[in-house]
Write a structure and sequence with these properties.
four-stranded antiparallel beta sheet, alpha+beta, 42% strand
Length: 113
């Protein structure tokens, strides 16, 4: 029996930087649409912009980073991942269960304490 309780998740998505602005917007909309199609709710989207990748992915050196906070039934995560793998504009993604939505995201520079 499936649980109907939704959990809070943070998804980070790296979108191919070689596609145009409209295609990138459509890629993010497909991600959001897939979440809502699974009965989820989008809570917050952070657009981190274009960043240099730590290593090449499929010959790409740059990617656009997006962090999306959403609620969805845990049973839907595998279906979301399957859809993400089919989307060639998504270079990498990670989904983590979290306790709260971050209103602002910032990182310390390496060496800061």
């Amino acid at each position: 029996m499936k649980s109907s309780k939704q959990h809070l998740y943070e998804g980070m998505y790296v979108i191919d930087a070689t596609i145009g602005d409209q295609a990138r917007t459509q890629a993010v909309e497909r991600i959001k649409s897939e979440i809502t199609k699974q009965g989820g709710e989008i809570l917050k989207v952070h657009d981190w912009g274009r960043k240099r990748l730590a290593y090449e992915i499929n010959g790409r050196k740059d990617g656009y980073y997006f962090i999306i906070y959403f609620q969805v039934n845990p049973a839907s995560i595998n279906e979301l991942w399957r859809e993400y793998h089919l989307d060639t504009t998504i270079l990498r993604f990670i989904t983590l269960q979290v306790d709260e939505v971050k209103e602002q995201i910032s990182f310390k520079q390496i060496g800061e304490r």
